[in-house]
Design a protein that fits this description.
Blueprint: E1 4-9, E2 14-20, E3 22-27, E4 30-34, E5 41-54, E6 57-71, E7 76-86, H1 92-107, H2 114-135
Parallel strand pairs: 1-7
Antiparallel strand pairs: 1-2, 3-4, 3-5, 5-6, 6-7
Helix pairs in contact: 1-2
């Protein structure tokens, strides 16, 4: 078994659909590597650089607020994410602007419900992690 099928999807699009020989990333519980035929696994991701290897090529994506699921019976891995972009396309200026927008929304916390506050705080944390990772 040389490859598995990976589907990386956001609410708006399928970002990646194709073969992968290794998927590397970090879930909220720690680092992981997934190989073809991996046991069933479900993991949540706040912010994670996800590395997809296939043959001699490697692509890195920045994933925010996602759920990863492996299915050994079909040799597929699905990663559903709120946001995902290729690392080479990540722009610190636009991320900083979005973080400022999120923080401005949090300044009006009295007008937000509990879910909105939690979502915005998690977004702010994942954006900060993403900016830190890009600067390294």
């Amino acid at each position: 078994m040389n490859d598995m099928q990976l589907i990386l999807r956001t609410p708006n699009e399928i970002v990646y659909e194709g073969p992968a020989s290794v998927i590397t990333g970090v879930s909220e519980l720690g680092a992981f590597q997934i190989y073809p035929g991996h046991m069933a696994m479900t993991a949540t991701l706040s912010f994670a650089p996800i590395e997809i290897r296939h043959g001699n090529s490697t692509e890195t994506y920045y994933v925010r607020q996602g759920v990863l699921n492996t299915d050994p019976s079909t040799n597929q891995t699905h990663l559903l994410a709120y946001s995902c972009e290729q690392a080479r396309d990540a722009d610190i200026n636009s991320l900083s602007e979005y973080r400022d927008f999120v923080l401005a929304q949090l300044d009006n916390e009295a007008n937000l419900n509990d879910y909105q506050v939690k979502f915005l705080k998690e977004s702010s944390e994942s954006i900060n992690a993403m900016i830190t990772h890009i600067k390294q």
